[in-house]
Each structure stands twice: as C-alpha cells, then as structure tokens.
Prior knowledge:
This protein is α/β, with parallel strands linked by helices. The protein is built from eight helices and ten strands. Helix 4 (about 115-125) crosses helix 5 and helix 5 packs parallel to helix 6 (about 175-190).
Amino acid sequence: MLEIKNVSKTYGNGSARVVALNNISMHVEDGGFLAITGPSGSGKSTLLNVIGGLEHASSGEVILDGRRIDNLSEDDLVDIRRRKVAYVFQQYHLIPSLTALENVLLPLTFGGPVKADEKRAVEILQKVGLEKRVKHKPSQLSGGEQQRVAIARALVNGCSLILADEPTGNVDQKTGMEIMNLFRQANEDGHTIIMVTHSSDIARRAKRIVTLRDGEMVNEVEQEKYERPYEKEGRVR
C-alpha cells in the first residue's frame, strides 16, 4: 500500500517561491488504479515524481509497503525503483539504437541479462501485441507501438507499482483507448497503477480519480462503475 502524508513541495525562495504541492494526503491500496487529473500547473506530475522518488518532498512523508521512502538516499531509491516502481512516460524514452526487445530488457540488465530474461521480455511484448515488432527499432514503430514497448518495459521485472505520466498524451484517441486497455489488463493482473492525465475521458477508465488545483487536492471520487475501454471497443490481444 502507498501512503502520502501531508506532502508539500516548494521551489525557490522569497518572492520567487512557488508552491507546487500543498499538504497532500491520500492512500492507494494494493491493486488500485488511481487517476490524478487537473489543469496544467496543478501539480500532477510533481506529485507523481515525489511518489516515485524522482523529486524530494519539501515536507511530509511517502510510505510504500510500510517503509518511508521520501528520506532515502539516492542509492536506496534506485533499488526501490528497480524492484517495486516502474515508470511510463508521455515521451516513451526508448533508446533509438536498440530494438523493441532490447529496450524492454533494459530494466533486467543490471544483474546481467540471461536467457530467461529474454524469454520473459518476448512474452511481455507478445502480451502487448508486439510479437511481430520484437526486432524493430523505435524509428520503425508508430507512436502507439513505442508506448506499448514502454509499457512492456514497465511490466518486465514485475514491479508492483506503475506510475504513468500522461501515457496517452502523444497518441490519437483510438490508440489512447488501446493503451488504456493495456493498463486495465495490467491492473487486473495485480499491478497498482497511478496515472496522471489531463483528459477526463481517460481518467474515467480508472477506479478512482483525484483532482488537483494549484497544488491542492480539491476532489476525490471513488468510481463504483469505472469504464473499461475493451468492453466498448474490443480488447487488445
């Protein structure tokens, strides 16, 4: 379970001081699917980065699986991100010179890749519908296919928490729904997902929606009937 307790984040000092997050508290149960939404500049991505340890909170606590992580050293945070937390970014962040398979293998190479790792990476690529694109490089893939590679990379080492920052921001609506299918499937497979989005339509695919404005949490909705894209538009195979 993830707990966020009275988290604030400020940048600068004096007249240049900017409050990005102001006393945010929430919890996310294991197996949850949370969408964080709000206008540009509301603090969505900052909150996601604080949760993932990419930025340090100015005050407050972030607790993951009973362990406080906001005060860890960078080496300890790297270890947490290797084992428990995976990121999916809007910009994909694939290495152009590597194939889809090699990009997916990256999180597993810290201990030296083995044949079992490659087999798992291929299986994950098949799961996201890229079994025919394993040897393709990013320049040979569409934007939606590149994001599928990024999702496969997030899934490959079995991290329980996936943080997604505007994962449908660079694709068209149809492809965005296909990507949401993959996140729904990952969630149903047991992954906890926290997703930042500016789209209310995308947010409705989550189980719970938190709305930020000017760094403050202004609304929280537990959705009894959240929309599942594949029920309306065909499940991604």
